[in-house]
UniProtKB/TrEMBL annotation:
Keyword Kinase: yes
Keyword Cell cycle part of the UniProt annotation: no
Descriptive protein name: Dephospho-CoA kinase
Signal peptide bounds: none
EC number: 2.7.1.24
Annotated source species: Lentibacillus salinarum
Highest rank taxon of the organism: Bacteria
Function: Catalyzes the phosphorylation of the 3'-hydroxyl group of dephosphocoenzyme A to form coenzyme A.
Length: 199
């Protein structure tokens, strides 16, 4: 039976960093952020709904969605973010479940669903175990500002758009503390996967 692992955390806590590490253990990862980019490509149903709702000013010259502009709009305004979520999330969920089922049918020992809003969107019923990549807020803030070039205000808007990572850690079956080095996080992941008997 395939073990489905839900990987989450808060923005810039290190989900993508940890999700890359699963490759070393031969465990496939389905990335919700990547899927959320696919489902809003021109021609997709969600693309039209976004343009109808937010207007053409959030488009690039090539008609694709300008994510920086749309992000600035929705992280300023909870109601607009909820509207965007209601357009994008059903499409992401459908595609994620399709891919998860594909892996389960092929009989892999384990598969990871990397979902930033796993707890907020109540998606834990899609997974067997949950892992939270945890960092203290100050570390999160500085890594986010450095990675994306956001001001402190912009970074806090994005951090506060999610459940605090401390609360997520309390809900999780396991926590990877990513305040230290990437190597530290790798070692925690390796012992967890051994404990869960998936490697
Ligand atoms: C607002 C958008 C256009 C900004 O795009 P951008 O390329 O700058 O960011 P990206 O998609 O890579 O997301 C980066 C991180 O932001 C956080 N985040 C993204 N969307 C949301 C949201 N709706 N609520 C809270 N946090 C979010 C996540 O931690 C995510 O890992 C984009 O994030 C989006 O379409 N969001 C809605 C869909 C969504 O919820 N995606 C995340 C999980 S499926
Ligand atoms: N242990 C670490 N030490 C130093 N830098 C790190 C560590 N882990 C991650 N980082 C850096 O912090 C930033 C955020 O990490 P990452 O992109 O993996 O977070 P994320 O949770 O996937 O973010 P998002 O929610 O935006 O998708 C990146 O620039 C990454 O290289």
């Amino acid at each position: 039976m395939t073990r489905v692992i839900g990987l989450t955390g808060s923005i810039a806590s290190g989900k993508s960093t940890v999700s890359l590490m699963f490759d070393d253990f031969g465990i496939p990862v389905i990335d919700a952020d990547k899927i959320s980019r696919e489902v809003v490509m021109p021609g997709e149903k969600a693309y039209k709904q976004i343009v109808d709702t937010f207007g053409e000013s959030i488009l690039r010259d090539d008609q694709s969605i300008n994510r920086k502009k749309l992000g600035a709009v929705v992280f300023e305004d909870d109601k607009k973010r909820r509207t965007l979520n209601s357009i994008v999330h059903p499409a992401v969920r459908e595609r994620m479940v399709e891919r998860r089922n594909g892996y389960v049918e092929s009989g892999v020992k384990s598969v990871v669903l990397d979902i930033p809003l796993l707890f907020e969107s109540q998606l834990t019923n899609f997974v067997d175990k949950t892992v939270v990549v945890y960092v203290d807020e100050q570390v999160q803030l500085s890594r986010l500002m450095e990675r994306d070039g956001y001001s402190e205000k912009e970074a806090y808007q994005r951090i506060h758009a999610q459940m605090p990572v401390k609360e997520k850690a309390e809900l999780a079956d396991a926590v990877i503390d990513n305040n230290g080095s990437k190597h530290d996080a790798y070692q925690q992941l390796e012992s967890l996967l051994r404990e869960w008997d998936v490697v």
